[in-house]
Amino acid sequence: MIRAGVYIHIPFCRARCSYCDFATGTYEGALAESYVRALAYEIDSFGAGRERAEVDTIYFGGGTPSLLTPAQVAHILGAVHRIFNVADGAEVTMEMNPGTVTREGLHGFRESGVNRASFGAQTFDDRELKRLGRTHTAEDTRRTLALLREVGFDNISFDLIAGLPAQTLSAWSRNLEEALTLRPQHLSLYLLEVHEGTPLAAQIREGRYHAPDADLAAEMYSLLAERTQSAGYEQYEISNFCLPGHESRHNMKYWTGEPYFGFGCSAHSFDGRALRWSNERDARRYVELIETRASAVIDKTELDERDASAEALFLGLRLLARGVNLSEHLARFRRDVRAEYAEDLSRFSEAGLIEFDGDILRLTPAGALLSNEVFSVFV
Ligand code: SF4
């Protein structure tokens, strides 16, 4: 049975980081309260007149969802349980930022059903954290991790960012050492991207920092792949590493083409076949739309067979060990990948970026490093 995931976007942060271009703003109590009400209403209306879908993952992303109170989280989860059949043992993840949670708060989140924590450690170097405009210190990360474990969280993920302003390879190496010593079940790697309109982009233009160096970032990526492997982690996706059995079940849905339903501003959804839709990006406008009983959906796209096939290919190739089964792909999309991309595939194969294993097409470690080049053929 195919089960869907539910994504819930919480667009509030304590302060805005210098590199961030996500749909998020500074936390305001009154707005958060009306936003939570709007979310519950959106979820309830989604269910009206529709068959109850089976769900086995719920993901609170943001923003900083841990700024909500346990009662607000329970209110949202109440709506999810009213509208969906949530499987026993469902994975319920909450993104958290170090220093934003208390022991009581974490107890409350656990009691409302949250069983996985994904938190933005980013780096263990306080100077790097400051340059990013993060409001926490490395000590906050250590303390938050200890608190999480104390209240019983045994499925914890760290986000790390590589290629930070003025970051050296040896600073990155120390960072990794600390992250691996703390032994989270899961690690996600982000390479710093500079988005126009962010304070970081302005700082680089003014010459305060250099733009990230692609070669150095590639070295950092390779070092991470090496170190995690010797520490017993599996690199199951281009940017994601886990101890055996601790893949992010929710994020797997994005890569394997399973359905997911997103609620809240800027949330995206996919019906598992060809239909994608997304919500209004601005939090206040989203609340207004819901309060006036209008739809928050601002965009709907129906993928044709060719686009759906291309998308399944480049998402599936992100799963490094698993790759894409070309016979199953042919049966599902009626497209023969070997024939359709014959020239590009032979070029990538000669360059050592992809490999065939019977019916399985996968990226090699060199291909994982240059994945954008491979994916550009499909999109
Ligand atoms: S905590 Fe995350 S979402 Fe919030 S401002 Fe920083 S990078 Fe953006």
In which order are the strands of the major sheet placed? Answer: 9-10-8-7-6-5-4-1-11
Tell me the span between the first and last alpha carbons.
Answer: 30 Å
Helix content: 40-55%
**Multimerization state:** single chain
Given helix and strand content, the structural type is alpha/beta
Main beta-sheet strand count, sense and barrel state:
9 strands, mixed
Small molecules bound: iron/sulfur cluster
Quote the average pLDDT. 93
Short summary of the structure?
By secondary structure, the chain is an alpha/beta fold. 42% of the residues lie in helices and 23% in strands. It has 16 helices and 17 strands.
Structural summary, described in words:
With 379 residues, the chain is of the alpha/beta class. It has 16 helices and 17 strands. It has helices spanning 29-47, 70-83, 103-111, 126-131, 138-150, 169-182, 199-205, 214-230, 249-256, 283-291, 305-316, 326-333, 337-340, 342-350, 365-369, 371-375; strands spanning 4-10, 12-13, 25-26, 54-62, 85-96, 116-122, 156-162, 186-191, 234-237, 240-242, 260-263, 268-270, 275-279, 297-302, 324-325, 354-357, 360-363. The strands form 4 sheets. A 9-stranded mixed beta sheet has the order 9-10-8-7-6-5-4-1-11, sandwiched between helices. A 3-stranded antiparallel beta sheet has the order 12-13-14, with no helix packed on it. Strand 4, helix 2 and strand 5 form a beta-alpha-beta unit. Helix 1 packs parallel to helix 2 (70-83). The two termini are 30 Å apart. It binds iron/sulfur cluster (SF4). Residues 13, 16-17, 20, 22, 24, 62-64, 97, 120 line the site of iron/sulfur cluster.
